[in-house]
Amino acid sequence: MSERVIPLVDQRMAPLAVPRPARAAAHATPAPGLLHDTLGRPLRDLRISVTDRCNFRCTYCMPKEVFDKDYPYLRHGDLLRFEEIARLAGVFVAQGVRKIRLTGGEPLLRKDIELLVGQLAALRTPEGEPLDLTLTTNGSLLGRKAAALRAAGLQRVTVSLDGLDDAVFRRMNDVDFPVADVLRGIDAAREAGLGPVKVNMVVKRGTNEHEILPMARHFKGSDIVLRFIEYMDVGATNRWRMDEVLPSAEVMQMIHREMPLVPLEPAAPGETAERWAYADGSGEVGFISSVTQAFCRDCNRARLSTEGQLYLCLFASRGYDLRELVRGGASDADIAAALAAIWQGRDDRYSELRASLPPDAGNDRGRRVEMSYIGG
Ligand code: SAM
Ligand code: SF4
Ligand code: SF4
After folding, report:
1. Is the CB of 61 under 6 A from ligand 1?
2. Interval 183-192 mean pLDDT
3. Could you give the dihedral angle defined by the CA atoms of residues 341, 347, 349 and 355, in that order, rounded to the nearest 10 degrees?
4. pLDDT digits (tens, 9 = 90+) for 93-123
């Protein structure tokens, strides 16, 4: 029954050419931290996907009928090695990145991921500060891994959880994974000191909106920040439909009626979530409204795919092949110069444009890169 999509292997054949400024001399290396794109947005946040594989098959991300046993996942040799990731990350940090999030696929499936965490935790900003280092996970392996991740230098985790009802959760992850194990993983993360833990719930109308209030009640009064994410038209395989998006404004009203909320100021510029506190002082919730309230204007995020392609937007179709630079013997100064040229040419703002696009015409949806490959 599957409408097969253009497999990723096609995209991998067509990365964008990396601009090659004349071989960078030390004095030509862009001054650290001054990169802005064509819309004046700085480069601050780097999301690194460490695997395109996952042990879940969330229907909105890796639908089973597409991501089956024949799916052309990347081969091990195509993945960036930890040393390559850490080296690239170092160049990004010198150019302004202050926050790194590891993601995937399921990042905890990558063997020895704590070794990479250790290498990234050792990086310092030009001012000598450590990075804000975090990881997004489905939580299934956190119970086993939380302590080692913390010991390696990870600061925080975000756990994805789409409901508390076991039957709903098992249906959404589509591999019959029990909710209790994810809740145990969240506890393990808190106990290991990976807090404040954030929990991300993707809300899909007709699928899990009845889980919104139970989730809010469950995490209210704890030190866990629950964030509601609008179901997005990312990738090309989830058969996204606008009528399955439940706007954050409705989710907020639903919670506010039972548990009054008051707005909070954003903690950092470019923050994706709009923050609200419970009026009775028992914690906060966030809303990530990428469909109904585009936040491209402040988008300071770059994404490094599992095989080392740099994507400038979650909705891009093609990335820039940094792995080729790294494996081709480029110096750090060469990579920094290429990164500067790429970022300074960036004009992506898909979510802002979405509303004016005809359905399915947006950014060549048939070829759009998958969330499991580029990372959320
Ligand atoms: N496997 C890890 C996880 O689930 O947390 C990390 C990767 S996952 C791609 C990152 C985040 O993207 C998750 O919070 C997931 O819920 C979210 N996500 C995936 N597909 C989405 C979609 N179509 N709309 C909104 N969020 C989505
Ligand atoms: Fe896997 Fe995360 Fe995608 Fe679910 S959202 S299929 S857990 S990568
Ligand atoms: Fe950033 Fe692209 Fe999302 Fe806009 S659509 S916020 S540019 S990732």
Report:
1. yes
2. 98
3. -150
4. 999 999 999 999 999 999 999 999 999 999 9
Structure tokens at 292: 């109904």
- Per the structure block, which two tokens stand in for 142? 């956190």
Instruction: Convert the pLDDT of each residue in 213-262 to its tens digit.
Output: 999 999 999 999 999 999 998 877 788 888 999 999 999 999 999 999 99
- CATH superfamily, domain 10-18+37-374, is Aldolase class I (3.20.20.70)
- The whole-model pTM stands at 0.92
Residue 21 CA to ligand 3 centre (angstroms): 26
Is there an atom of ligand 2 within 6 Å of 106 CB?
Answer: yes
- pLDDT score of 6 more than 50: no
Pocket probe for ligand 2: among 8, 52, 372, the residue whose CB has the most ligand atoms within 8 Å is 372
Task: Find tokens 């594989």 and name the residue.
Answer: 53
